[in-house]
Amino acid sequence: MKKNCTESPICSKCGNTQSIICGLNDTDKNEISYRKDDGIYKKGDIIFKEGNNAHNLFCVHKGKIKLSKLGKDGKEQIVRFAKSGDILGYRSLLSNEPYHATATAMEESEICVIPKEVFQKIVEDNYKLSLNLIQLLSKDLKSAEQHLIDVAQKTVRERISEALLLLITSFGYLADGKTINVHMTRSEIADLAGTTTETTIRTLSQLSHDGIISLEGKNIVITNHTELIRNTNTYD
Amino acid sequence: MKKNCTESPICSKCGNTQSIICGLNDTDKNEISYRKDDGIYKKGDIIFKEGNNAHNLFCVHKGKIKLSKLGKDGKEQIVRFAKSGDILGYRSLLSNEPYHATATAMEESEICVIPKEVFQKIVEDNYKLSLNLIQLLSKDLKSAEQHLIDVAQKTVRERISEALLLLITSFGYLADGKTINVHMTRSEIADLAGTTTETTIRTLSQLSHDGIISLEGKNIVITNHTELIRNTNTYD
DNA sequence: CGTCAGCTTGATTACTTTCAATTGTTGTGG
DNA sequence: CCACAACAATTGAAAGTAATCAAGCTGACG
């Protein structure tokens, strides 16, 4: 399932300006291109597992990934998502710790695999990159803390509304501009909102009944975005 | 409430080896010593407020600080603690954002105040420091994600047990080796565990009845640490 | 000695989970 | 293409958990 990367240096497809790796000099880019592998992961494939030793940096080329941790009684909690242009595993590599979460492909995904030592050497050589990493970490931390409050204090309806909005900001809409561009099972939405499958189903159908969303097969269509936001009971 | 710092360069008291700022060269240390102020904050004083523009780095010299965010309906959620040797506000300074939380002194505290531009200049000049910051951020993020799972999936009894353990790791014990070295109101413990004051009281007295803790005035004494851990229902 | 904040207890209410049962969907091998 | 197995979605009813509301209590302090 691996082939050499034929792309131009450093995943040109991976959102050129987005990716944190952009801004490297040519030597480093070539080093990465030379050393990396491309992996194709099918839906449901595990990219890395919580607790395993971290040997690689993953650069998402295409696809959707969920990051989850195991909680009480083995219940899954989705902590965040990654998509094209995002990098995974950098935190574990930087702090020399095992992967802190499990990464699972939500659909067929192309992911470049960059060996630990290559990444580490480049971070050491690139002061600018380390500043980018700091910004990235700050952002992740900020949203983790916000997520904490959401889960801690909100009702299920509020959390599910919040989860839908997170899906929108993470993956956007289809061409119609109102259908969320991702397929998740009810159970996965539950793992994101921190509730049960049954309650998720009931709440979604309630939101649908209230004209805020519309459930069309596997798709969730946002019919009243303003009201959805109001439902999260957040005042930023 | 401010006086010039008379201490040796860079808060020698602030846990010499602990503080992230250690390892700087003498020039930078002197720059900081010269530019910083010392502040004394009384119990309940606010050091900085969520949403305000970040102008300073705070280096805790002595005392205990709680970091909290406002949630739904203005309910407070404690996100973490800081104590002697910890630094506050660095994330906002690095990412040029407002303070993401409110810092409140839990008891009389001495805190050095280092202006933004001094900190920024030093970070720019010190590659090693930026790596330290990355590690710090990684650690914070890790615990934030763990906290998320705890709050999302655990019962109140488990969360309160968890909260007590966090107090122990944050502040330690008194000399007797079993009394938690911090005074918090029931309502603050509730804000930490993400529940209400009444439920906190009931749960604490239940834990006390079960012989796991003992409530002695304002103090909480851990009488059965093993059982307290078992109560968190965590398996690391 | 009164007051106020923090602490406690009880009763009621509301929200979610859990359990159980059914239906719908999808992918696979014959 | 059908039948079957496995997974996903749905619905109802019962049980549990924690929040809310209301009312005393307690102790520190001016």
Oligomer: homodimer
Indicate the radius of gyration of chain A in whole angstroms.
19 Å
CATH class of the largest domain in chain A: Mainly Beta
The average pLDDT of chain A is 86
User: What gap, in angstroms, lies between the N and C termini of chain A?
Assistant: 45 Å
CATH architecture of the largest domain in chain A: Sandwich
Number of strands of chain A: 11
What pattern of helices and strands is seen along the backbone of chain A?
EHEEEEEEHEEHHHHHEEH
Largest sheet of chain A: 5 strands, antiparallel
Number of helices of chain A: 8
What portion of the residues of chain A fall into strands of 2 or more residues?
Answer: 15-25%
* Number of separate domains of chain A: 2
